[in-house]
Amino acid sequence: MADARAEQGGQIKRIELKTSGHRSTQNKSGEKGKSGENQISKPVFQIDSAARDVKARGTGLSCYALFATLGRDCEGDAHSAARPNILAVGCQSGLNRPLLSEALLTQTAQTSPSPLSSPDAIAQAFAEIAREAGAAIMQVYAKGCDARIKDDRSPVTEADEVAEAIILRRLAHVMPDVPVVAEECAAKGVIPDVGRRFILVDPLDGTKEFLNRNGEFTVNIALIEDGKPVAGCVFAPAVNALYAGGDTAWRVRDGIEERISTRAYPAEGLTALCSRSHPDAKSEAFLAEYAIADRREAGSSLKFCRVAEGVADVYPRFGPTMEWDVAAGHAVLSAAGGQVLMPDGEDFRYGKADAGFRNVAFVAWGQDAPQK
Ligand SMILES: Nc1ncnc2c1ncn2[C@@H]1O[C@H](COP(=O)(O)O)[C@@H](OP(=O)(O)O)[C@H]1O
Ligand SMILES: [Mg+2]
After folding, report:
1. pLDDT digits (tens, 9 = 90+) for 219-247
2. How far apart are CA 220 and CA 120, in angstroms?
3. pLDDT in tens, 151-183
4. Residues 212, 111: Cα–Cα separation, whole Å
């Protein structure tokens, strides 16, 4: 017998994992086991009926929570099953650890309406969550950590994972009925079906900046409705700067909260921003067609915030990004009076599940796109 806890919607349920059989796997070394066979026999656990009222709803949250709980004892990946209200969790065990081969979490829970009624209230809720995640990131920052390279060749650290777990747990309390697409879950293949309303999370944008210890990394949470970001928060914990946007945009820096807005384009030329760690020639070529007075580099979604607070005017990005990198900064910038467009001037939209939430090129502007 083993046990675990699954959490969603503020409820934590103890789940009993009963052995439903044994699975034989090939001994990696090829050595013969005690049985004399060239195999290791591992128990297979199934979640019993006590788990049936755990809310799953195909959001990936319960799956993640369950995986996170077991993750201390099990190593492996979690993935959502084909059926939308059933999640499967696969953990590859160590020799003395349980193998959870399949957890069937059936949807029975009623969804409760979110008490967060306005975009500003949602952005404020995201801000509180981002601060909590940021505090956890700073603990890892202080002690230092190593990076692992993901399948997309980008780095991930303990800080990304700890921050994402906090954000998912808190979102499950405050917006339990909204699916969440989060960077590290997505990297493990845990991606919920999204409808017209969903949340995008990048727990640590600018992981390279985090590893380079230059402070230009952020926590990002955004709500998407009908393809557009309607509320979002960007928090840069190392410099204690928080940006949020819903109906209005605001910044909290060194404890001082103030409204922010974009500036009119200066007559002497635009201030342009580019990625510090991911420069690309197409973005530079785009800028070459405009009167640029100053060009600066910055890491992470802070570039959107610089435009939103009126210290820069344009941020073109033709190199690859993901929706979770951009949505929160986009929400802040829109609320501050700016916009994010595709280079041809069309709206830049979210929810591109078929493309794996990968973005096309975009340009963030403080005002309407100027004449070339
Ligand atoms: N080849 C690539 N494919 C997808 N996304 C990429 C990428 N190279 C960089 N990025 C994205 O750019 C983000 C960093 O942006 P910037 O260069 O503006 O600091 C990264 O966020 P993470 O640090 O969260 O992985 C990553 O998602
Ligand atoms: Mg990112």
Report:
1. 999 999 999 999 999 999 999 999 999 99
2. 16
3. 888 999 999 999 999 999 999 999 999 999 999
4. 43
Banded pLDDT at 136 (limits 50, 70, 90): very high
- CB contact at 8 A, 104 and 229: no
Rounded CA-CA distance 92/97 in Å is 9
Comparing CA positions, the residue from 264, 230, 287 lying closest to residue 368 is 264
pLDDT at 152: 84
Residues of the chain with CATH 3.30.540.10: 119-259
- The rounded distance, in Å, linking the Cα atoms of 188 and 200 is 16
CA-nearest residue, atom 1 of ligand 1: 320
Q: Is 359 in the pocket of ligand 1 (CB under 6 A)?
A: no
CATH 3.40.190.80 domain extents, the chain: 270-365
% of residues, the chain, pLDDT over 70: 69
Q: Does pLDDT of 119 surpass 60?
A: yes
Q: Is 184 in the pocket of ligand 1 (CB under 6 A)?
A: no
Atom of ligand 1 nearest to the CA of 153: 1
Residue with tokens 């979770």: 324
- And the tokens for 306? 């610089």
CA 104 to ligand 2 center in whole angstroms: 31
pLDDT band at 115 (very low <50, low <70, confident <90, very high): low
Decide whether any atom of ligand 1 lies within 6 Å of the 277 Cβ. Answer: yes
Pick the CATH number of 270-365 from 3.20.20.510, 3.90.1150.10, 3.90.930.60, 3.40.190.80: 3.40.190.80
Q: Is 183 labeled as ligand-binding?
A: yes
Hey, what CATH class is 119-259 in? alpha beta
164 Cβ closer than 6 Å to some ligand 1 atom: no
From 221, 325, 357, the mutation candidate for ligand 1 (largest count of ligand atoms within 8 A of CB) is 325
Going from the Cα of 179 to the center of ligand 1, the distance in angstroms, rounded, reads 23
